[in-house]
Amino acid sequence: MYKCILFDIDGTIIDTEKAVINSLQKLLKLEKGTTYPADELSFALGIPGFVALEKLNILDIDNATKKWNEYLKEFYSDIKVFNGLKEVIEKLYESNVKMGIVTSKTKQELIDDFYPFGLNNYFDYIVCADDTVQHKPEAEPILKCLELTKTIPSETIYIGDSIYDMQCAKNAGIDCALALWGAKNQDLNATIKLNNPKEILNIIKI
C-alpha cells in the first residue's frame, strides 16, 4: 500500500494548458514575429519554462521567462482546478496521507499560479524546478522529494499527466499514475491509469 502520494501540478491538479500555450504564443509572436500553432508548442507542457525556451532557440532566456510569466497573468482566468481534485486532496490530508509536489514550476511560478487556489497548505513537501540541477524526465526531482518525505520508493507513487512525469517516476524507481483528465496522450505507459480524481482514494484504500 502506498503511504506517500506525490503530485505534478500543471495538467494534474490545475488545468493550465490554455493559459500556458496562449501566453507562449504571445511571447513568440512578439519576440520572433512568428505565430506558432498550439500543437507545435505542446512539448512545453510539463518541463521547466526555461528549458522550453531553449528548445525554441530563445537567446535571452531570463528576460523571455519574465515576459512569459507576465503574459501568463493575462490568461489567469483560464486556469482552474480540475473537478474533484480539491475534495480528494482534502480527504487525503484528513487521512494523514503524506503528500508532496514535484513540479517543473519555479518557486515564484508556484506562488503566482498555484497558491491562489489555496491548495498549497495541504502539501508539506514541495520540490520546484529551482530546487534541483536536473529536471524531469531525470530522476532527481522525485529523489529529492523522497529525501524530504523520508519514504521508500515502494511506498510512494507519483501522479502526473505527461511523458516527462512517467519517465521521471520510473527513473526514480517509483510507481506512476497517469491522470487521464489532464493527459494529452492517454496511451502513455504507467503503473496505473486514473480516469477521475476520486480513483486516487482507491490507491490508498480510502
TrEMBL record:
It comes from the Bacteria. The keyword Hydrolase applies. The keyword Hydrolase applies. GO terms for cellular component: cytosol. GO terms for molecular function: phosphoglycolate phosphatase activity. One of its GO terms (biological process) is DNA repair. Keywords: Hydrolase, Plasmid. This is HAD family hydrolase.
